[in-house]
Design a protein that fits this description.
Number of strands of chain B: 10
Order of helices and strands of chain B: HEHEEEEEEEEE
Radius of gyration of chain B: 27 Å
Number of helices of chain B: 2
Order of helices and strands of chain A: HHEEEEHEEEEEH
CATH architecture of chain A: 2-Layer Sandwich
Strand order of the largest sheet of chain B: 1-2-3-4-5-6-7-10
Oligomer: heterodimer
CATH architecture of chain B: Beta Barrel
CATH topology of chain A: Double Stranded RNA Binding Domain
Radius of gyration of chain A: 22 Å
Shape of chain A: globular
Number of helices of chain A: 4
Strand content of chain A: 25-35%
Chain lengths: 208, 224
């Protein structure tokens, strides 16, 4: 009897000890994640104006394009609203803005490694030349900027420094990677709220 | 002649009397100890549950059943025991829609899985109030250390830190023997633990010490 009690205790200890959290491969399939990273070496109040691309670059499977659907325009507007609320002035892309904003949507693409810039070669994506720097590339001054993901339906927002382009490089000072948001499970309001959250978790972006 | 005889007698008897006195003193010590059942040692194996408090509770709010504890106690005087405890405990909880801020401008909003596992070890002094009874309550205090690993899992990241700290653990408990002559007993104990271990994974919040309550249920086996 006492031996049986001892065994019961051992089993209980083993059961309670084995609780475990999901591995990274499972965590990466969670519905929603909002990554942001900014260049800590610059002060955003050195910039006053911004422009945003007129359409969302869309990468879906083997296709890519630019989209100007109402949902896409609402996404662009929400990004612009957040910038304005932080003191930046929106101007046309031809009006020599201090900052440019690229927005890319990715759907039906299984990405195993995301490193900033992997999507630059897709048609539809706005190259540095569109912002007045033909032949330039985008650059990321901060490290690390690599993420792995298996999710689909993501939005990438990049804040590009148009004031200090050097060495054929236009620097991306902030990027937001909103993962899993375009999978038809989230209504448009939730999608827009993730944009707000991306800005909220980067309080450094402000002119004051 | 008679004087010489007495002297020889004294030389023989005095050492014998001294030996006898020493033997009787040793015997009296033994006879006072045995009936009170306070000599020897016992060992414990217990299921150890954790209830987090204070800053530790802000890190992981859920109580945890995951843990065990092994101990040994040696009677050094009537009712007074000295010994050790070593164990393993784990607390965990997931928090949805939580933002983690990195140190280089990164931030991630996603489900945060937080867990801490620890290996506590202490030297223990305890006093059994009525050691010769079937139910033997005790009061004790443990002083020792903790090895802890705090993990924060966010997406592909496993952000963690390891820490060593000192701990102080007052404890109350009781042994409930399964029979008057049984070597086995049930153990129930409750303690409060304060440790210098902290958590600093979130840059916007950190703790310098941690507290918890532990409730233990287990078995004790008396050696001799």
């Amino acid at each position: 009897m006492k031996r049986q009690i001892s065994y019961c205790f051992l089993v209980l200890i083993l059961i309670t000890s084995c609780s475990k959290y999901p591995p990274a491969s499972e965590r990466l399939t969670e519905e929603l994640a909002i990554y942001t990273q900014f260049d800590v070496s610059i002060a955003f109040n050195d910039y006053q104006t911004f422009a945003i691309v007129p359409a969302v670059a869309f990468i879906g499977g083997n296709d890519s394009a630019t989209i100007t659907s109402p949902d896409a325009l609402a996404l662009l507007n929400r990004i612009a609203q957040n910038m304005v609320s932080r003191g930046f002035k929106q101007v046309a892309a031809t009006a020599n803005p201090d900052l440019g904003i690229n927005v890319t949507a990715i759907r039906s693409t299984i990405t195993t490694v995301y490193s900033p810039g992997w999507h630059w070669s897709y048609p539809g994506y706005y190259p540095a030349g569109w912002w007045g720097y033909p032949g330039y590339k985008y650059g990321y001054p901060y490290y690390p900027a690599y993420m792995t993901t298996y999710a689909t339906g993501s939005v990438i927002i990049e804040l590009i420094d148009l004031q200090m382009a050097t060495d054929n490089m236009v620097m991306v000072r902030w990027n937001a990677f909103i993962r899993g948001v375009l999978n038809n499970r989230y209504p448009q309001t939730d999608v827009l709220n993730t944009v707000d959250q991306a800005f909220k978790q980067t309080p450094a972006i402000k002119t004051f | 002649m008679k004087k010489k005889y007495n002297l020889q007698l004294k030389r023989i008897l005095l050492p014998l009397i001294a030996l006898r006195l020493m033997a009787s003193q040793a015997q009296s010590q033994d006879t006072t100890a045995s009936p009170r059942f306070v000599h020897g040692s016992y060992y414990t194996c217990a299921w150890n549950t954790t209830i987090t408090l204070g800053d530790f509770n802000d890190w992981v709010g859920h109580a945890s059943p995951a843990g065990f504890d092994l101990g040994g106690r040696y009677f050094i005087k009537a009712g007074l025991v000295a010994g050790f405890n070593i164990g393993w405990q784990r607390v965990s909880q997931s928090y949805t829609n939580e933002t983690f801020y990195g140190s280089a401008g990164q931030a991630i909003t996603a489900t945060n899985y937080r867990f801490t596992w620890m290996i506590p070890f202490q030297g223990v002094i305890a006093y059994h109030l009525i050691p010769d009874k079937i139910i033997s309550p005790y009061l004790g205090i443990g002083i020792g250390g903790d090895y802890m690993e705090h993990h924060l899992l966010v997406q592909e990241y496993d952000i963690y830190e390891t820490r060593w700290g000192l701990s102080l653990i007052p404890e109350i408990g009781a042994l409930v023997k399964f029979g008057k002559s049984s070597r086995w007993a049930a153990l129930v104990a409750f303690n409060y633990k304060w440790t210098t271990n902290g958590i600093g994974l979130y840059i916007d919040r950190s703790s310098k010490n941690m507290q918890m309550l532990n409730l233990k249920f287990g078995l004790a086996f008396k050696m001799r």
